[in-house]
Design a protein that fits this description.
Helix content is 30%, strand content 14%. The relative contact order is 0.08. It is built from four helices and six strands, in the order ααββαββββα. The longest helix has 18 residues, at 61-78. It is an alpha+beta fold. Strands 1-2 form a two-stranded antiparallel ribbon. Strands 3-6 form a two-stranded antiparallel sheet. The chain has two domains: 7-58, no CATH class; 61-129, no CATH class. The site of protoporphyrin IX containing FE has 9 residues, from α3.
Length: 129
């Protein structure tokens, strides 16, 4: 039982890899775990703790999500992104997590017809109107 003034410390890095929180595939890179019916759904701030929660919740959380989504959308809209063959993807532990060797990718131009097809599909499936 916690008493007033007790210190509670939690490890975001460990929580992001715990089977009890994320299930059996907790160590797999599976970004689609964030999607429900093809749409991004955020998790509880007490499950995905990168932005903290409660009264200390990051005030820039929504801003950070918009920035991340608009940047990703601007890139993916124009290019296919392929990680360079053999490039080592490793985290660098720091206060915020970096990629130890950066992320070397090749950007392949998307053709206009491919983008049109994507839009048509998203429209048909009701993601855009
Ligand atoms: C990926 C990006 C970000 C992450 C992971 C992040 C994470 C965090 C975390 C963990 C805290 C709580 C710190 C604590 O309790 O000691 C926090 C607080 C805060 N963050 Fe962020 N943050 C991000 C981006 C931003 C941005 C873009 C802004 C502003 C535009 C921002 C503004 C703030 C502010 C003002 C607080 C203090 C909130 C308070 O204590 O009342 N953050 N952030």
């Amino acid at each position: 039982m916690l008493k007033k003034g007790d210190k509670v410390i939690y490890a975001i890095y460990a929580m992001g890899r715990m089977e009890a929180i994320w299930g059996k595939d907790c160590l797999e890179f599976r970004p689609e775990r964030w999607l429900r019916d093809g749409r991004f759904m955020s998790e509880s701030a007490y499950k995905f703790t990168a932005f903290n929660g409660g009264p200390r919740l990051c005030l820039g959380k929504d801003f950070a999500y918009y920035q991340m989504k608009s940047t990703a959308a601007a890139i993916v809209y124009r290019y296919k992104v392929k990680v360079v063959n053999g490039h080592k993807v490793e985290p660098k532990l720091a206060l915020t997590m970096y990629m130890k060797h950066g992320l070397m990718v090749n950007l392949i131009n998307r053709s206009v017809s491919e983008i049109d097809q994507y839009y048509a599909k998203s429209f048909d499936e009701g993601y855009i109107n």
